[in-house]
User: Which sequence fits this backbone?
């Protein structure tokens, strides 16, 4: 804890030494940005909103501060952090080379949900990069994030602000659930527009390689820079494949209950889930169902939640982690989820949902009644 940080705060909400700053007006915003930025500059840990998920920020160039992130999250120390910048000029000091394709991508997508892995300079401590000679960098598209990064000195290391292994936080209350008493500050920026983490591309190789899918799809990348490979470990999830983004090898995003994904033709899926639910209820278990606005009415039993609408799958991405946390709160024993691979964000959504389910996917066939 950075105790000197408390002197920066007048009157805010305290939760076991973690201060929550809420923002209702412009004046409060300026004050919170100053408090948060100064706290990071002093070596503290501050959770703040980005357009994807809440990040847990520390000074990326201060090895001791970055190390505190690992402790607060319970994160393995070989899992590197993303450095967040607010101005393109900041890039030169932390990467030794900016490939032409990186320039094209930053011009097109920054600020935005795209992280680029490049070669690091001496300035970046190995504790920020998990011992790697490369560094992941992004410029988030959220006014509070940008202002806090500038106030903090320009380089903020920020993983998602959840305990390692839990769903990423998309609301300040999720951060508080996981980080109460472990970090100095939480800046409450309300709901976030995207809801799942940034797309990660390794640009040190040619063709560049997608390491984590996100809002920015392979098609969008290819439109700008031509061929883009995909990390084979991301697609097959085979046990012998080690993902190139170290964090992708861990069982992530997991709810406390056992989660199973059911995929197939919609009617058959609804019928199968209903059968599974009845079976579990008979065993005395509490059951959750992840449905959509369109299918809510298909499930007469169990606790049914809509994750969003299939008409716009960005709503599904936005609610994904929140719904998993809601089922945790309800202490269900198991969850059955529909599958959401069809839309524009299908890859990104199923990557997270698949991990939450430890890849337990049940394929169902079309029923032949008629
Ligand atoms: O949207 C996001 O990216 C959010 C917000 C807060 O910006 N951050 C985030 O950070 O998702 P985190 O730490 O939860 O995920 C970072 C991922 C991990 O899988 C990590 O292994 C990978 O990025 N990564 C970081 N540096 C890397 C590097 N040098 N090479 C390969 N993968 C790297
Ligand atoms: Mg994370």
Assistant:
């Amino acid at each position: 804890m950075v105790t000197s940080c408390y002197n920066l705060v007048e009157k805010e909400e305290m939760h076991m030494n973690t201060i929550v700053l809420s923002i209702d007006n412009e004046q409060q915003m300026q004050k919170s940005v100053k408090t948060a930025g100064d706290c990071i500059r002093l070596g503290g840990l501050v959770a703040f909103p980005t357009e994807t998920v809440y990040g847990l920020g520390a000074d990326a160039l201060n090895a001791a501060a970055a190390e505190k992130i690992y402790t607060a999250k319970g994160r393995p120390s070989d899992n590197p952090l993303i450095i967040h910048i607010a101005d393109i000029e900041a890039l030169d000091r932390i990467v030794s080379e900016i490939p032409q394709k990186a320039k094209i991508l930053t011009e097109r997508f920054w600020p935005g949900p795209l992280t680029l892995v490049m070669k690091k300079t001496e300035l970046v401590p190995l504790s920020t990069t998990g011992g790697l000679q490369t560094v992941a960098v992004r410029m988030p598209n959220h006014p509070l994030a940008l202002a806090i990064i500038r106030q903090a000195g320009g380089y903020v290391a920020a993983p998602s602000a959840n305990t390692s292994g839990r769903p990423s936080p998309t609301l300040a209350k999720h951060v508080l659930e996981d980080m109460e008493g472990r970090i100095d500050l939480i800046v409450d920026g309300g709901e976030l527009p995207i809801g799942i983490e940034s797309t990660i591309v390794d640009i040190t190789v040619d063709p560049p390689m997608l390491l984590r899918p996100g809002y920015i799809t392979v098609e969008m990348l290819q439109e700008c820079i031509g061929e883009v490979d995909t990390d084979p470990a991301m697609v097959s999830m085979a046990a012998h494949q080690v993902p190139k983004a170290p964090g992708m090898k861990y069982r992530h995003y997991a709810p406390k209950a056992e989660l199973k994904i059911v995929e197939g033709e919609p009617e058959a899926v609804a019928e199968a889930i209903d059968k599974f639910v009845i079976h579990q209820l008979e065993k005395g278990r509490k059951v959750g169902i992840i449905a959509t606005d369109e299918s809510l009415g298909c499930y007469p039993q169990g606790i049914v939640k809509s994750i969003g609408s299939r008409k716009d799958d960005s709503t599904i991405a936005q609610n994904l982690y929140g719904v998993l946390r809601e089922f945790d709160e309800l202490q269900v024993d198991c969850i059955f989820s529909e599958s959401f691979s069809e839309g524009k964000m299908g890859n990104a959504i199923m990557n997270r949902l698949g991990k939450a389910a430890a890849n337990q996917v049940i394929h169902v066939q079309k029923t032949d009644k008629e």
Summary: The radius of gyration is 21 Å. The pocket of threonylcarbamoyladenylate (ligand 1) is lined by residues 50, 52-53, 55, 79-82, 113, 115, 117, 129, 132, 134-136, 140, 158-160, 197-198, 200, 211, 244-248 (CB under 6 Å). DSSP finds eleven helices and 17 strands in the chain. The longest helix spans residues 266-282.
